[in-house]
Amino acid sequence: MVDLDALETEARSSLGETQDEVGLESWRVEWLGRKGRLTTVLRGVRDLPAEQRPLIGAGANRLKVALEDAIAARRAELLAAVSDGPALDVTLPGRRPPLGSLHPVTLTRRMMERTFRDMGFDVVEGPDIELEEYNFDRLRIPAGHPARDMWDTMWIADDGNGGPRQLLRTHTSPMQIRYLERRQPPIRVIVPGTCYRYEATDATHEWMLTQIEGLVIDEDLSFAHLKGTLEAFVRRVFGGDIETRFRCDYFPFVEPGAELGVRWQGDWLEILGCGMVHPEIIENAGLDPDRFTGFAFGMGVERVAMLRYGVRDIRYFYRNDVRFLREFERFMGSG
Amino acid sequence: MDVPLKWLAEYVDWDLSVEELAHRLSMAGAEVESIKRSGGNWEHVVVGRVAAVEQHPNADRLRLATVDFGAAEPLQVVCGAPNLAQGQTIAFAQIGAQLIDPGTRQPRKLRKGKIRGVTSLGMICSERELGLSDEHEGILELTTDAALGTPLSDVLADVALDIKPTPNRPDHFSILGIAREVAALVNGSVREPSASYPQSAMPVDQRTSVEIGDAEGCPRYTAIVIDGVTVKASPQWMQDALSAAGMRPINNIVDVTNYVMLEWGQPLHAFDFEILRGGRIVVRRAYPDEQLELLDGSELKLETDDLVIADAERAIALAGIMGGAESEISDATTTILLETANFQEASIRRSRARHTESGTEASRRFEKSLNPELAELAARRAAALIVETAGGNADAGLIDAYPGKAHIPQVLVTQRRIEQILALQPSVEDVRGILTALGIPNRWLPPNRYAVSCPPWRSDITVADDVVEEIGRILGYDNLPSEPLPGAVPDPDIDPERQLGERIRDVLSSLGLREIITYVAVGEPELAATASDSVGALSSVRIQNPMNTARDRMRTSLRPWGLHTFALNQREARAEIALYEVGKTFKPNPGRQPTEERMILALLGGASAGSVHGDQSRPLDFYDAKGLMEQLGAGLGVEFELTADARDAALVSGQSAQISIGGKRIGVLGKFSPSVTTQFEVEGDVFALELSIAELALLLQDSTVVPSPSVYPAAVEDLALIVDVSATAGQLSSAIAGNGLVESVELFDIYTGEQIPAGSKSLAFRVYYRSPDRTLTDRDVEKARRGIVRRLASQFGATLRDS
Q1: pLDDT tens for residues B5-19?
Q2: Min distance A248 CA to chain B CA atoms (Å)
Q3: Is residue A296 annotated as part of the catalytic site, yes or no?
Q4: Which contacts (CB < 8 Å, 24+ apart) does range A80-87 have?
Q5: Closest-approach residue (CA) in chain A for B539
Q6: Least confident of B151-160, B370-379, B438-447
Q7: What is the CA radius of gyration of chain A?
Q8: Tens of pLDDT along A88-97?
């Protein structure tokens, strides 16, 4: 006949002597393990005389549960004691896993792309080295046209193989033409990309700049849709209470043409050029300009980045000084 | 261009403040860059009236003036001027105004003060206090009828609007052009200047002739001859007008040509007719070696591409840019030939760039492409002004050589198009009113169209939408409706390279690297120094007019600017430098657009961060770079394979490897040769990870399915092997992992030395065996292990260390 009470007394007493996880584990193996003492009792129940089986079996099972509870309680007791150990100097520096950063132009470009994507825009890219024909002629800026003066161009040297004249694109607008060559309306696309201007560098001018071009063409779109779309963009980027204004401006590939300004810290800042796609461009894409209308726009990413981050000199962006780049770690969580 | 408001007021009336006028013009497309006031700083100085005058109680020579200046309450000031009288309109300076101190002649801020016991709340100004003159005998009396409180600058100063025209609007380079804008904006009309003058019986074509030898360069040339003129100073009003617009008065003939140019935007030129050999004009390209002395004294060596105005024998002017010295109007001139012509903008631009620094008032206008129709209007206006200011008799008519004459097309605009684009419904009267105020000829063609034509001072009304813009901009874009986009969202284009570039940025930045964006232009020597092979370095796309002649190549690699940036940041002495760039490189294609390939270059160097907790700082090495590559692979779900020696001229062969996927080379990993880094002034080792994003995008699996972990337990065993030193860890672990029951292998120890035969090394691997569908038995594991050991023995001569 097994004395369950004696067994319990012994088990509890030895549990009380355990001091750590190792001790707890060996106690568990001794009592509750596969060959543990209580396990052995439970296994032996089937060999007992029939009249003893219910009594011993039930008692042993109860004891198993009781010991399992006891070890959990003892573990909690030991842990509580440990946490009262000597205090750490929590002001010592932590071991920091490395945190990198995205370039501020990437951060701002992505923010702008995301804003347009939310409005259903596709995002595509085009070549940095463009044909003169796409950068100018097909955008209604033929050679000798006064509007060519709006863009100081860096040309690619002739390689002597008789190909067409090439240049570093002065704007992302050539992708309007390239996209129209492969897509039919409805068209709703933006084109981020690097552009180049043969222009002296100073605090607000870089010869290399990032632009985002937009093109929207569908049936019967109006200047109201241009306004609605770009106002929504500006609200999302600069905040809902930003003041905007549209001013008449000239770009040969739009008509009517406009410039969107925002009131920023009291002053009006022009942040993008826009307008209704010129009917000749729609027609050249094989579409009926009476039926299909739309709008286009272009804006500088660095300009927006300068406003967002309060950067006073555009040259910081491509100097890549780590002391500057490090400040953008704080945006790692914002995509 | 400076548009003086006094001059502008000759043609149009407006009832707006200067600021509001400037704003309206800007919004409608004639951008006012600044408002120029020729007076002093007259902030807080306004028009006032002396409402009452009384004697100062404590001083005989001072009086107290009550000044009404439009505010609710008039103010009292102490004044010592003898000419002060009730009812005078005066310049009243409020407290805070900057006035010129009559004693020191320096600006001084006006403060509230007590004079002989009486408080003075402002000042009635003299001319000297306003900085207008030295006059200080008494106060300045104004003759304006402007409302009390109007800023003094609005009534006294010469105010000019500095307008920056867009390339399509040469008429914004003229006072009349701006007047037409104002007329449309205020719903007014323009007073056209007079262009009629008495003409003699002598027909001009009996006196002279014009021959155009280059109709493309000169679409139109008109000439008027006036004899008996008296060259002298022009009338004061004209001199004042020119000065206000920023031009120097010279003599009446030259001043008229400049005045009309500013008025109409059409440059003109007057020749001394007596100097013209053969008494006639020839427009032609310059002869070889032809020379010309210009008005400004410069001696030009002409090129045969230069368009010149010549007489029967020699060039007398550089067409559209500047007249010649010899045919210049002088005091002795009595007969003039007045040229009003049209020149092709491209031709003018070429000659201007060749011969002048910044061009002239004339060339700036011709380069904007003028409508040849404008010439005759300006010619007649100038003739009228010359006869008025210099006397003389004009020959009858004008010579009009007009080879470029073209039919003026009619532009048909439907009311529907206006409504479709502007999303509002202006009335026919509104539309016609705007067009008429702008001077754009228009008719209503019932039931639904307008017939419009381009006026002579513009060239930009050629299609219906040009007319739509006129309506929209005059109504004001800000007054047009605004609506969200309707309709279906189109399906996107998928650009796997672009998406991969973005993923790589996210992974590398989260691993602690900083993204950099560098310039695309590099120098050929930099490319050669960092090239992976000597052939590639020679082939790059050249920029014809680079910003910096030392960097005239489009980059074929991200390495040069990467290393420059590394060096720059090393000077800032940070422990570890970890940078990367995702960017395009450019490879030439003879006769075609270059191939643009997206690349990733990560650079790693310096030392790992130590800590007060006992972690030691150590120099970063090849395996840090490799770990980075492995983590990038983990983040992209791809396994990069490394093969020793990248065979890359810029990398150290023994510390570099080529990176491939499925045997396809996609990049390199390794240490830059010291010979490369020293050229870029980089100190210490720099490790590079360079991959072609284009190649990687092709090889990347686009499956998004991930395996589920096995629910069966793993069996773990350690295998310590002794192998020849030449066997690599990679070869051994792949051989172990080749067994079907092996889930993963980790190398946890490398040992050479005692107990290991010379020429051998010991590698210890921890091997995890697991099956996805059952619990492995001891026998399963035993069998697998024997298979592995057999394979290692036969392939690498490996033996188990403890057997």
Answers
A1: 999 999 999 999 889
A2: 4
A3: yes
A4: none
A5: A159
A6: B151-160
A7: 37
A8: 889 999 988 8
Q: Which residues, including other chains, have CB under 8 Å from residue A213's CB and lie 6 or more apart?
A: A171, A172, A173, A175, A176, A190, A191, A192, A193, A296, A297, A298
Chain B positions touching A131 (Cβ under 8 A) are 593
Secondary-structure breakdown of chain B: helix, strand, coil percentages, each rounded to the nearest 5: 30, 30, 40
**Nearest-Cα residue of chain A relative to residue B562:** A320
Average confidence score pLDDT of chain B: 92
d(CA B114, CA B125): 17
User: Which of A156, A194, A196, A270 to mutate to probe the B interface, most B CBs <10 Å?
Assistant: A156
- According to CATH, the topology of domain B496-609+617-699 is BirA Bifunctional Protein; domain 2 (3.30.930)
Q: Is A278 tagged catalytic?
A: no
Distance from the A150 Cα atom to the nearest Cα atom in chain B, whole angstroms: 8
What's the pTM? 0.83
pLDDT at B397 over 70: yes
Q: Are A211 and A301 in contact (CB under 8 A)?
A: yes
User: From CA B339, how far away is CA B223, in angstroms rounded?
Assistant: 5
> Above 0.95 for ipTM, yes or no?
no
Kindly identify which residue of chain B lies nearest to residue A127, measuring between CA atoms.
B596
Candidates B347, B368, B465: best to mutate against A (most CBs of A within 10 A) is B465
* CATH pick for B45-155 out of 3.40.50.10420, 3.90.1210.10, 2.40.50.100, 2.40.50.140: 2.40.50.140
Q: Which of A27, A109, A138, A151 is catalytic?
A: A151
Q: How many residue contacts between A and B have a Cβ separation below 8 Å?
A: 258
Chain A residues whose beta carbon lies within 8 Å of the beta carbon of residue B615: 95
Tell me the shortest Cα–Cα distance from B463 to chain A, in angstroms. Answer: 9
CATH of the structural domain A104-334, one choice from 1.10.1240.10, 3.90.550.10, 2.40.128.270, 3.30.930.10: 3.30.930.10
Look at the alpha carbons of B154, B156, B157, B161 in this order and tell me if their dihedral is positive or negative.
Answer: positive
With beta carbons under 8 A apart, name residues in chain B contacting A145: 167, 369
Q: Does residue A58 have an active-site annotation?
A: no
Residues B645, B656: Cα–Cα separation, whole Å: 5
Question: Is A223 within 8 Å of B511 when comparing Cβ atoms?
Answer: no
Is B509 within 8 Å of A168 when comparing Cβ atoms? no
User: B225-283, pLDDT tens digit by residue?
Assistant: 999 999 999 998 999 899 889 899 999 999 999 999 999 999 999 999 999 999 999 99
Q: What is the DSSP string of B208-246?
A: --EEES-TTT-SEEEEEEEES----PPPHHHHHHHHHTT
Say whether A201 and B547 touch across the interface (CB within 8 A): yes
Query: Which chain B residues are Cβ-neighbours of A128 within 8 angstroms?
Result: 520, 584, 586, 596
pLDDT, tens only, B136-154: 778 888 877 788 988 887 7
CB B248 within 8 A of CB B177: no
Which CATH number applies to B2-38+159-185: 3.30.56.10, 3.30.530.20, 2.40.37.10, 3.40.50.2300? 3.30.56.10
Decide: helix, strand or coil at residue A163: coil
Tokens of A329: 């770690």
**A171 tagged catalytic:** yes
> In this structure, which topology does domain B199-401 adopt according to CATH?
Phenylalanyl-tRNA Synthetase; Chain B, domain 3 (3.50.40)
List of residues 6+ apart from B525 with CB closer than 8 A:
none
Known catalytic residue at A211:
yes
B381 alpha carbon, distance to own chain's centre: 38
Q: Annotated catalytic residue: which of A41, A45, A258, A296?
A: A296
Instruction: Please give the share of chain B, as a percent, with pLDDT higher than 70.
Output: 98
Domain borders along chain A are 4-82, 104-334
What is the per-residue pLDDT for B357? 80
What is the distance in angstroms between the Cα of A158 and the nearest Cα belonging to chain B? 8
